[in-house]
Amino acid sequence: MRRSRAGAKLGVAVFGVMIFGVIGGAVSAPVSAVELNADQKGAISTNCETIKQSIQQLTRADSKTRVYLGGAYENALTNFIVPLNLRLTKNNKPNPGLTSVQSKFAEKRQAFNTTYTKYMKQVEDLLAIDCKAEPESFYEQLQTTRASRATLQQTTLELNSLLHDHIDGVKKLRSGL
Amino acid sequence: MKWLKNDRNDEKAGEVKAGRMSFGARNLWILGAGAIVLAILTTSVSILIYHNSGDIYLDRSRPGYLPDEEEAADDRSSADSSEYKFSEMGEVNGEVLDEYIKEIEKVEEEVKSVSNPYPAGALSDKSLGIPEKK
Q1: Model confidence over B96-119: pLDDT tens digits?
Q2: Which stretches of chain A are DSSP H helices?
Q3: Does residue B82 sit at the A interface (CB-CB below 8 Å)?
Q4: What angle do CA B77, B81, B83 make, to 5 degrees?
Q5: B71: closest CA of chain A, how far (Å)
Q6: In whole angstroms, what is the distance from residue B78 CA to residue B107 CA?
Q7: Residue A72 contacts B where some CB pair is shorter than 8 Å
Q8: What is the pLDDT of residues B5-38, one digit of tens each?
Q9: Which residue, A47, A83, A95, B99, is the most exposed by fewest CB within 10 angstroms?
Q10: Is B57 domain-assigned?
Q11: pLDDT digits (tens, 9 = 90+) for A96-111
Q12: Is the dihedral of CA B65, B66, B68, B70 positive or negative?
């Protein structure tokens, strides 16, 4: 009897702590590091739906770009870069420069997928925020999303540069034959 | 008197059926409920994996991200034309490399046709109609 009473008390105590924890978490307002002036808050609150629609249209365009560029990078790696290096190796003419570009390109291509996924997740989180009620949180997440987008842009530029380096390497190899 | 006994047996069987589910019917209910619970559980887990792995963001079959007509026509035309694939077998000479360079430069042109991928301006305050901080 004593054990069951003690057990019941413990259960109630744990349940009470859980409930308070949930309520506390729900009630406490998120601390935002962004300070907006009245004009900015008003503009975000008033044009919330329009801003979200613009962002959604942008993500559709970004998705098309991702498919287009991703396909081109995959084609370059699978149908050109890798087979060339394999053929060179089979002909006892391995080229360390081209091999190095291949591994960098493969790594960056993977980073492109990862960065794109991260960026889209940021956009999803951004669109989930109620910008009418929380303009500051929205703006903070917008800045995070911008940073992800900048990283994505940088990755595509690096991939383009690596592709160009590979072509230059092949031209040098051709001139040496 | 046999008919009276049979009637009494039938009455008892009826009482059993009215008051309590038979063994087979109960098991059938448990099986059905278990199958539904299992289906809900496995579907939830697969959706969670689909979302957390990031595949949802690469999936263009979801509403709003389906390819439009122009894009679908481009995909069909590129699928019809044979995609160049450099063979990993064979010798390496000037002729082979000349053809390789010619084909890979086409790929580079495709990539360059997207002149400014993911420009920062698209998400700027100005583009979204947010006044700048003064």
Answers
A1: 999 999 999 999 999 999 989 999
A2: 2-27, 38-46, 48-76, 82-90, 96-128, 135-176
A3: no
A4: 120
A5: 9
A6: 13
A7: yes
A8: 555 555 555 545 555 778 899 999 999 999 999 9
A9: B99
A10: yes
A11: 999 999 999 999 999 9
A12: positive
Q: What percent of chain A has pLDDT over 70?
A: 84
Structure tokens at B12: 């008892």
Contact B57, A62 (CB under 8 A): no
- The structure tokens listed for A34 are 């962004």
Phi, psi for A58 (deg, rounded to 5): -65, -45
**Nearest by Cα to A89 from B88, B86, B95:** B88
Instruction: Specify the number of domains making up chain B.
Output: 1
Q: What is the 8-class DSSP label of residue A130?
A: -
Spell out which residues of chain B touch residue A76, defining contact as CB-CB under 8 Å.
104, 107, 111
User: pTM for this one?
Assistant: 0.73
- What are the backbone dihedrals phi and psi of residue B86, each rounded to the nearest 5 degrees, phi first? -75, 130
Closest CA to B86 of A74, A76, A172: A76
User: Residues 6 or more apart from B34 whose CB is under 8 A from it?
Assistant: none
- Measuring CA to CA, how many Å separate B64 from each of A29, A53, A56, A63, B59? 33, 12, 9, 10, 11
C-alpha angle A11/A13/A19, rounded to 5°? 100
